[in-house]
Every structure is written in C-alpha cells, then in structure tokens.
Amino acid sequence: MRRPRSSARGRSRARARASVSLVVLGTAVFVRSCDAATTYVTLPVDGSFHGEYESIGRDAWTYFKFAVPTPSDVDVVVDVESGDADVYVLPPCSPASAPCDDPSDVEGKYAWASWHGSGPEEVFISREFVTNTSFGTDKFFRVGVHGWAQHGSRFRISVEAVPESRAMVKDEKDALDSIYNKCCNGSDSCAGWKTIKSRDLDYCHSGLASCTKSNSTRQLNLQSQRMDCELTRADFATFGSSITRLYLNQPANLSSKLTFSFGLNQTHSSIDLLSVLPSLFTLSLSYADLGGRTLENAFCRDGVSANLTEISVTGANLTGEVPLCLFQRVPKLEALYADSNHFGGTLPDLPMSANLRALHLSNQRTTTRTISGAIPSSYASSVTLEHLWLSGLNMTGSIPDVFNVSAGRFRDIDVSENLLRGSIPATLAQQVHLESLHMGNNQFSGAVPAGLYDHPSRRVVDIKSNQLTALNVASAHSDLGASLITLNAANNRINEPGIPSVLTRMPKLTYLDLSGNDLHGEILSNASTNSWALLQLDVSSNSLNGTIPDASYWGQIFTPGPLDRLFDISSNSYESVPDWLNSYVGMSGLTIRKDPSAAVAPTDDGSGLTKSTARNRPSTFLVIVFVVGISTLSTVAGVLALYVQRSRRFSNQFRPFQTGNFRGVELT
C-alpha cells in the first residue's frame, strides 16, 4: 500500500488515488544519485521465484536487478505471503559510468510501480520500451521492494521475459474486443487501447492485461480509457474466477460516461458484474458513474467476492451512508477509498474483527447533507488503521483520547475542515508511526501536546486555523523533529515570545508558517542554536519587534539557488528592519515581505545583528520638518478650541423633534 503523498508546502485537495502505475508504451526519466553503496541481488528472467519467502521490516528496502538479453516484455511479480510489500522499478542508467538512484517512492524515483493493500504486486514493462531505449553499457533494470506493514512482511520475487508465444486465450480476447467495440467509439475514448489495436499487439503483451503462463487473464487494467458505455455481467462472464484485479477507474474531474447495469436479483450486488467475478482482490471504479447506488446495495449482498481487500470508488456517484455491514460482509477488506461521493449520516463503529487499514471518506459533495456527528472511539483505538481521511465533512465533538500508544499503526490522519473542538488528544501526539497529520480549520483549543510535531516520525503537521494557545513543548525526544519538513500553525491564538526555540533544532524543517497569531518580543529568543533547513518562513500578522538576526540564522532562505523561498515578517511591530535584509531584496527565487513604513536600522560593527539601542544624530532636514510640524499643530489646535467654544454656546439652542416617522432637531 503506497504512502499517500504529502507535499512539503501543503497537499492538493484533489487526491485521486491510482491503484497501479504501469507504463505500457512510453519513456522514462533517468535519475542519479551519489550513493553507490546499495547492494543489488541479480535475478534470472525465467519466471522462477528467487529463493524462499524472505522477511522485510516496516519501511525497509531490499534491492534486486535484472537484465533482458533480447527485447521482450518483462513481468516483475512480488508474491506477498503476509503483510504488505510494494515494488518499484527503474530502467538501466544511461550512461552507466555514474551511480544511479535506487528505485523508491521517495520523490517519485521510479518509472514503474505497483502498490496494493495485500496480495501480489506486479509490474509490466513493454517490449517497445526495451527495444526503443538505449541503455549504454549497463543493461540492468533496478528493482526496489518496500516493506510497508507495521508488523513486517514476507515476500518472494520473480522476473520473466515474457515469451512471444504467450497469447490471451481466444474466448477472453473476444470478450475484450467486444468491450472495445462497445465502449471505445468516441473520438476521445480509449486512446491507449486504440494504439494497441493499431499495432496489433496481443493483450498479454500490451499492459491492458496480465496473463498467466497458461495464457489466462489474472488482471485487467482498463483504467483512464474514457470508455463511453454501460458494462454488464455479460461483458466479464468469460473471465470468471481467473481475474483477481479489475481496474475500471476513469480520469478525475471528467463527467464519466462509464456506467454499470443494475442487478435484478435483490439479494445480490446491485453492480451485477461482481456476481461473475468471485475471485477479485482489488476493484477500482473511481470516477465511473455508479448511478446513485449505496455501498450497502453494492457490497453487502450475495455474489460479492469474499476475497475483496481493496475497493476504490472515489467520485463514483454513490449515496446513502457508510454501512456497518460493509466491514462484516467483506471480512478481508483492508482499504476503502470513497472520497468525493454523496454520503451522509454518521460513521458506524468498526467491529473488533475489522482488518481495515485505510479509510478515505473526505469531501462528500452532497449539498444538503454530509457525514456528520462524532468520530467513533473505535477509529481512534484501532490497531489496524494506518490511513484515516475524514476531511471536509461535518464532524463534531472532540477526538476521543483513546489512541493505542503501544500498538497504534497510524501513519496518516486527516480530519481537517470539520467542526471538531476540544483539546488535541495526548495519545494522538504519542503515535509512534504517524508521519502526516492534518487538523486545520477546526476549533481545537488549548496547548499543543508534546509529541504532536516534535516526534521524530513526523514529516508534515498542519494545525492551522484553530484556537490553539501554546505551541512550544518540552520535548522528550533526543532526536526531536528529526523528520519534520512542514509545520503550519497559522491563524491560531498562540501567545508566546517569538518562534519556539525547539523548532530551530529540527534539521529538516523547511516550511514554517506561524502567521496570524500573537507571537511577541524578539523573533528568535535564542539565535545560537538554529540548525533548521528553512526555505519558507511566514510570521506575518503577529506582534514581533526588536532584533532580527542576520541571514545566517535562517536556513536556506537567503542562500542563492533554491526557488520559492520566502521571508515574511510583515504586519508586526517592527519600527525598523536591518539593512542586511534590504540587501537581499530582488534576489532571484526569494520573496521578502516587510512593512513598507519600517525604517532601515543600522547594523553593528560586524556581528550581523541589529543594535536595538543604537542612536543616530538627526539630520538638519529632519529638525526643520519637526519644527514646521509643531507650528502647524499649534495653529490647528487653536482653531479647534474656538470651534468647541462656539459649539458649546449654541448647544442648548437645539431640541429633538419627531413628526410621524421622521426624526430631527430644530432651533429653539
């Protein structure tokens, strides 16, 4: 299961999750690093599994490589016995003289990837890519297997140069051709599929299907084809129990023309094609049109595969509520991706037997109702949930302070844009594996608990737009904030002296937003301990004043090179700014925001800090301006005094009156 990506400067709210990434016909980006210490195990390409199942820990990596002797399709399969392991692949380096990056999901360093909640992972590399790409002297593809499960995983891997003799069995080929003829008549439909047809590629060599050695279909990847049709059980009946993964998800933000027929049997799923696919592990229908069906009618009925572990129905026009039966009738369900539908009601409790690891229900689009009520305590206390997205709903009350500190597996929590209130639970702040936390735009109050952002596992913490009053913490971690990249605590009620000194000791802290609070005094109370890596700092709209340390105290902000750097100290109480700051105005890639009325303060004799007690002798021009100003004010004061006297003399000559609805004053 792939980690949901978190941008360092804030995530996009449109978070459509692709269940698999396969390059069918295309090119790849070659990337390098200076680390040549990685050990790669060489794999044969005969389709045999490499040794026995091996163990891999959480967030651990094992690396392999293989070479393709003659141009052919390549199938990389990771068979997962237990836990969850994902696979990432990069092509050979070009040229081969320099070390290359290891394949991973960090910063997108992969050309092919496969990530699922459970079961086997598979990557298909087309013969066209192998044929049309120059690899230099190094012919080795690089493979990274990533352990994702908290309790560890066991896997084995195989690589097969797919023989040209492999071809989809005729009945299944005819069934796919029938779907093509039915769904791909539009001018903007099935562009990739049309290319495959024009090249007369067998489906087993196209990336649209993954075939076994016996030529049967185990996976259909028809995602993003912009199909325009209604699919029925008859379209998939030929494939039967051989298919374990079916991808029919359509492009996001597209008015989908892919629909599904309703089942007539009330005891069976309303998505009738499910009744002929009893072996499905993964079903992806995101951004297709499910015609206002409910999750209960679709998945709490007979005929639904008992093996389903992953359901993706984001933006699929579903209605109703999230039913308890979903977690009972689909006992192996580990991931439900159902953002951007039309759900309402309240959330059901999670049964103790639930295996759920990922629950995404954000941004329900119903205009009159949405998911509301309290977050059940069973969600917080779960020892299986790793990803919980409940943003943009109408959740109320407080978050239960019952997170399991010793066994909790949370890695990503998003409850932003709700109506949640109360203090932030201390047990939430103590979650050991939590990397990404989004709680902004709620009504949380009180002090931030220790561990919330200073725990070494945290990478992104967003607590903006609440009513929090204190941010500084007494951290219990020797490696405090070791992984923190982004902290956004803007628009709260934080009333503290300057930037908390604990933040300056976080070596990866790059983006810091503390704007719109009540920070006061000097911006850095202890400027000698900074080791952060800042690129952007926003402390605007506070009450800061006094000394501003020189450029060396602010990470990478004033270092030439990185783009999108920011130093915003506007709307504070500075009467002057140091001249060193003005010397950076106009630097490429750097935005400086300060109050235009603030004068330029002199620097001292080389320390780099402004002298808060420095005095300059006023110029003759300023003295003249001062004298003229005093004379003008005296004249104005005399005129005002005369006016007040006259006003008092006539003040008793007026009285109020009312005629009908009209009110006024009249002279007596």
From TrEMBL:
GO cellular component terms, A-Z: axoneme
Intracellular or extracellular location(s): Cytoplasm, Cytoskeleton, Cilium axoneme
Signal sequence bounds: 1-36
Primary localization: cytoplasm
Annotated Pfam families: LRR_1
TM segment ranges: 621-644
PANTHER family (alphabetical): LRR RECEPTOR-LIKE SERINE/THREONINE-PROTEIN KINASE-RELATED, OS06G0585982 PROTEIN
The protein, known as: Unnamed product
Organism: Ostreococcus tauri
